[in-house]
Structures are given as C-alpha cells and as structure tokens.
Amino acid sequence: MRWGVVTFPGSLDNNDTLYALEQVLGEVAVPLWHKDRALHGVDCVVLPGGFSYGDYLRAGALARFSPVMDSVVRFAADGGLVFGICNGFQVLCETGLLPGALIRNRGLSFVCRTVHCRVEETNTPFTRGCSPADVLALPIKHGEGCYVADAQTLQELEDNRQIVLRYVDSAGRTTEAANPNGSLRNIAGIVNARRNVFGLMPHPEHACEALCGGVDGASLFRSVRATLTEGLPTPAASVPPGL
Amino acid sequence: MRAKVYVTLKSGVLDPAGKAIEHALHTLGFEEAHDVRLGKYIELRVEGDPERASVRIDDMCRKLFANGVIEDYRFEVGE
C-alpha cells in the first residue's frame, strides 16, 4: 500500500508523519501538496497536524478550500481511507467529512502532554489491530481540541458506534480530570458513519518509537495496513456495550 | 456597499474566553455583567445593490465566515 501525507501552508507534522511511516514503520509514503489535484494513487490520505493557513478565521476553515481537498472529498466518497490528525481532524470537521466541530480548549490554554485514550471500537480500518478497551498513551498538543456537537449528533455517534477514542485516566476510566480540553463525552477521535474517515486530536505519529516516549501510536497505522491487505474486521469486534 | 458581519458562538456552545472575560469583569467590580460571549467582527466592501449584496453576504457567512455547527451570524449592509 501507499500512503499520502498532505502539506498545507502552515502544516507542522507532515515530515514527522512521513518519517514515522517510512523510517519507523517501513511503509511507502509520498508527500502531497495542497495544490495537488491528483492523489498519485495513494491508498490512505493523512491530513497532518499544524496550523494550516495560520488557523485564520477558524482552525481548519481555510484548508478545506485547497485544491487537494476537492480530491480528498471525492476519494472519501469513493470509500478511500482518510486519517486526520489534530489540525487534520479540524479540517475534516470543517469540510463536513466528519460531524461536529473543535473549539477552544475549556481551560483556554494550549495543552501539550501525553494523555491516555481508550479504544472504543476495533471494527474500524484505523483500530482493527487494537484490542477492545486498549488504553493508548499518546501525545496531544493543541489549543482548539474541545470536541462539540449538538445532542442529536452525539446520540447518532453513540448509536452508530462512531466514537473510536475517548480520553481516560491511566486505569481506563472516563473522568473529568482525564479530559484535557473539555471535549463532550471525552471524545478524542471519531469516524464517519461509513467508517472510512477518521479524525483524532492525539498524535499517533509522535508515538511510534520508544525514543520518543512510546509506541502506542503505531497500532493505528498498522491497522490501516492490515485493513488494506487483509480486509475489514468483523463488526463483532467492538467493545461490549456498558464497558 | 460596506458590510459588517458579526459571528458568535451559539448559545449552547461553551465559550471559555467569554467566561474568562466575565470573571475579569466581576473582579473589576462590574457584577452586573453576565452572559459574556466573545465573537468575531468582519468588515468588507461588496459590489452590487443592497438586495443582491445581502444575498451574497448571507452566502459568504454560511460557506466561510461562520461554522453553522457552532456559530451564529448576523450582518448589516450600508453605504
């Protein structure tokens, strides 16, 4: 398989993502430029972290008008896998590929630390290599990561099992203290209803080497590879309700 | 035509910056201040008559200036 990592003006983590994919995980990855209309035959598009277009107006609001995003929207509509990290998650929400929005952190401060995230769903292309209720240690670094959506959208996310990652404490419990930014229902990552578009605020690309503090992020990238080579997991592989 | 666009967070959406400002106002002795909401103000000049300008600006608000998931907008068109 072949990965594509988009660079917008103001992207920060595009090179780190390419490094993690190529040098650490041994994948084939190509850079995609924001002016590209072609996706050059990639199987999964990564929208990386950063401050695309300076986060002017709203985080992710201007990146959605990049030429490459027209192609990403068509790619997603055809079932292609899209993986949005941090600013990439914000871009996906602004583009309408994912529901809801990301607003200023509850505490108003930029938060930069390692958090724990519980894997809520393993029947997604992005988590099929994880075990239900796995707790991943992943770094976050954002000022606008508070996930919000209206009550009906939240209910749909729960009913369709689209909430993939939640902020938890190290024991795997969803507590207020474990929520770094005020996200509703401790949401750290979601997929769309079709489950081919994934957005998350934590940075798995910064958690692929022990030297950088942990390797828990690698399981998400490896899941994508497994999905593309072995197919999707069975829907039964989810956390039982009530866990 | 000149236009003024105001964008604010919807009433149900947490506005931590507005809350911080409200807290500061209370600290300064302005206890009568409540429900502070911090928003954005955008000025622009548009070509065309007022009626068409209003239609176009409404379109701009929906497509770019405001995110309908979290924000409300209003605007004024004048000379």
For the largest interface, the chains and their residue counts are: A-B, 19 and 13 residues
Instruction: List the total number of helices of chain B.
Output: 2
Question: What class would the helix/strand composition of chain A place it in?
Answer: alpha/beta
- Number of H- or I-type helical stretches of chain A: 5
Helical coverage of chain B, percent range: 25-40%
Strand segment count of chain A: 11
In terms of quaternary structure, what is this? heterodimer
Strand order of the largest sheet of chain A: 2-1-3-4-11-10-9-6-7
Q: Give the overall pLDDT of chain B as a whole number.
A: 94
Largest β-sheet summary of chain B: 3 strands, antiparallel
Question: Would you mind describing this structure in some detail?
Answer:
The complex is a heterodimer of chains A (243) and B (79). With 243 residues, chain A is α/β, with parallel strands linked by helices. Chain A is built from 5 helices and 11 strands. Chain A has a 9-stranded mixed β-sheet with strand order 2-1-3-4-11-10-9-6-7, with helices on both faces. Chain A has a two-stranded antiparallel ribbon with strand order 5-8. In chain A, 53% of the residues are buried. Chain B has 79 residues and is α+β, with helices and mostly antiparallel strands. Chain B has one domain (2-78): 2-Layer Sandwich (Mth169, Chain: A), CATH 3.30.1280. Chain B is 35% helix and 28% strand. Chain B has 2 helices and 3 strands, in the order E-H-E-H-E. Chain B has a 3-stranded antiparallel β-sheet, covered by helices on one side. The model of chain B has no long low-confidence stretch (mean pLDDT 94). Classes of the chains: A alpha/beta (243), B alpha+beta (79). Chain A binds chain B through residues 57-58, 61, 93-94, 99-101, 103-108, 146, 148-150, 182, and chain B through 9, 12-14, 16-17, 20, 40, 64-65, 67, 69-70.
